[in-house]
Each structure stands twice: as structure tokens, then as C-alpha cells.
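Propose amino acids for all 339 sites.
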């Protein structure tokens, strides 16, 4: 069993502090349950992860990152317990489910994509400034809440860099979201997460990542062979959105933009482009209101936003991919891998 110091986990019986209600998610590395804090009555998510084999390293990885890295765009860890050979991680409950829930069922407007992507970039900028690479960014690991919050989750495959080790080379992550340098097991740094965010943006545009009809092995082969993926209908997108994808899905990692550069895009070569071409894909404040709260403010006027409001406010039954944890895979070949 992987060793956890007393400072990393709480002492006591978790059932005395938290009431477990129902299973709300199942992923490769753990099962997530919705629960209640018995003292406050507040909702929590309880992620149960086995410490057996390789899962032990991933579980410890996640708990240490979440305890040490606090940010508004990172899901918060509230408590943790050792129960037999399982690690129970208690986190804030995100009542809007995952971004995957949205992109599977509807197409988002570019302003909404920009609001979500900007929140993700803020989380990535925080991680990267602390020398952490997420390494498994995808729509099922981006959590939403009906208060407009957007947070990154699932840090079991993350890597902590150091001055002595500024790059990694392991093929880690989920195949369809992997950057070319990961697929080829070349040395890589934090910008692999920017590639993955570019793929997430394609998910928001097209409903699924490139090559999703192929197996994981074939997807890795196509990423290696093709580099930057082609959009199905690029001319339907604004010039700003196409430029963002070009900057984030640059096959050459050195030329790919960082999270900080993308957040400061107005100071870069896209400056003024929105005004010149009438685009709406802005990395400043979104056209209406920051974050997903805009969905609710406009839902009476816009049928699409009304539908999204219902999605974010829905009450899911057991087994639905919701809360602070991984969703079930949509098709074969999309499970995370670690080699």
C-alpha cells in the first residue's frame, strides 16, 4: 500500500462526518458518490479510490495535489480518509456535472465556449506556474456548477516538475486528447495541457474530439501522423476561434502558446481582431456575463440557453456522470493510460 502521512488524511470514521447518498460517477480510477456533511448539511462529493497496485500512486498523487494547490478554478479538497485499502477523498460538490454532459447533447455558442475556456486557462495557468502538469485534461474532467463555476478535476495522472526535472516523457493521459509529443514519448512540459484544451474546444464545437470513432491505438497513430487536426467545418467558426485553435493546437510544442499567453491574448497578434472582423470569441470579459451564470440570465430570451439551464439544473439519478469526479467513458478506447 502506498504510504500516506497522518497530515495527509484525517483520523476517524468518515461515516460519522458524512452521509453517503448515491453513486453519481464511475471512472477508471475511482467511484464518486454524492453525500452530505452531517454537521452543516452541505453537499459533498466522495471519491473512493483503491490503493492497490498502480492505482495507489494515482490516488496519492491526487490527494497531495488537491491539498497543496488551492485555486478558484481547481476543485477543492475538503477531507480525506483511509478506509481499509481505499482512499476516500471528500471534495466540493459541483452540481452542474461535467462539460462532457453539455457537449454530448448540444452545441455551445462561441461566447459560452470562451467563458468556459477562459476559466480552464486560469486553472492551467495556476497549475503550470506551480510546475504541475495535469496530463489528462478532457471534457469529463472539467466540472460545472449552477453558480457559474468552472473547475478542473481528476489529478491522478498529474506530474510535479522541479528544477532538476523540468520535463517528462511518459505516455500518460487519454489517447484522443494527447499532444503529439506525448504520443511519441518525447520530452514534454506543461504545454501538453494546452493541446488538450484545444481538443476540448473542438469537443465544444463538434461534440466529440477528433478521431473519436477510432480506437485509442489508432487515434495515437493519427495524432502522430497528422499533427494538428482538421475541423469539419472551419468556415462556420469566427476568425478568433480559428486563431485560438491554431495557437493551442500547434504541433510544435515550442511554438504552442502557454496558458498565460492565451489569457493575455489582447497583447499578442490577435489584438484588435475582434473589432476588425466582428468576432465574439474574446478572452477578455465575455460579451454578456462572465461564466456559466450567463446561461441562466438569458434563458428566457434564448432557447439554447434555456436548454442549457435545464441541463445544469437537472437532478441526476444514480450512475449519471455528475459531481466532482470522472464520468463513464463514451466509447471504447477512451480510458486513461499510464505507460
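Proposal:
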Amino acid at each position: 500500500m502506498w504510504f500516506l502521512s497522518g497530515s495527509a488524511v484525517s483520523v476517524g470514521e468518515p461515516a460519522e462526518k458524512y452521509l453517503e447518498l448515491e453513486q453519481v460517477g464511475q471512472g477508471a480510477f475511482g467511484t464518486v458518490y454524492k453525500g452530505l456533511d452531517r454537521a452543516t448539511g452541505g453537499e459533498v462529493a466522495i471519491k473512493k479510490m483503491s490503493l492497490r497496485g498502480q492505482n495507489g500512486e494515482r490516488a496519492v498523487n491526487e490527494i497531495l495535489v488537491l491539498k497543496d494547490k488551492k485555486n478558484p478554478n481547481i476543485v477543492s479538497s475538503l477531507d480525506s480518509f483511509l478506509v481499509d485499502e481505499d482512499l476516500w477523498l471528500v471534495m466540493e460538490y459541483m452540481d452542474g456535472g461535467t462539460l462532457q454532459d453539455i457537449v454530448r447533447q448540444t452545441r455551445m455558442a462561441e461566447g459560452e465556449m470562451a467563458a468556459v475556456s477562459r476559466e480552464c486557462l486560469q486553472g492551467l495557468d495556476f497549475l503550470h506556474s506551480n510546475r504541475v502538469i495535469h496530463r489528462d485534461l478532457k471534457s469529463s474532467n472539467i466540472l460545472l456548477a449552477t453558480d457559474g463555476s468552472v473547475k478542473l478535476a481528476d489529478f491522478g495522472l498529474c506530474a510535479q516538475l522541479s528544477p532538476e526535472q523540468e520535463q517528462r516523457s511518459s505516455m500518460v493521459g487519454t489517447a484522443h486528447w494527447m499532444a503529439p509529443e506525448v504520443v511519441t514519448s518525447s520530452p514534454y512540459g506543461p504545454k501538453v495541457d494546452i493541446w488538450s484544451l484545444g481538443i476540448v474546444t473542438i469537443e465544444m464545437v463538434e461534440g466529440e474530439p477528433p478521431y473519436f470513432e477510432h480506437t485509442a491505438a489508432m487515434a495515437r497513430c493519427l495524432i502522430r501522423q497528422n499533427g494538428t487536426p482538421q475541423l469539419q467545418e472551419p468556415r462556420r467558426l469566427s476568425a478568433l476561434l480559428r486563431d485560438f485553435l491554431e495557437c493551442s493546437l500547434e504541433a510544435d510544442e515550442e511554438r504552442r502558446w502557454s496558458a498565460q499567453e492565451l489569457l493575455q491574448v489582447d497583447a499578442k497578434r490577435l489584438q484588435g481582431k475582434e473589432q476588425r472582423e466582428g468576432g465574439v470569441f474574446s478572452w477578455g470579459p465575455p460579451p454578456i456575463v462572465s461564466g456559466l451564470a450567463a446561461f441562466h440570465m438569458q434563458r428566457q430570451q434564448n432557447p439554447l440557453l434555456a436548454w442549457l439551464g435545464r441541463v445544469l439544473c437537472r437532478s441526476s439519478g444514480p450512475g449519471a456522470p455528475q459531481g466532482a469526479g470522472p464520468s463513464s467513458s463514451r466509447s471504447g478506447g477512451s480510458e486513461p493510460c499510464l505507460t
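Residues 266-323, 325-333 have pLDDT under 50 and may be disordered. The radius of gyration is 19 Å.
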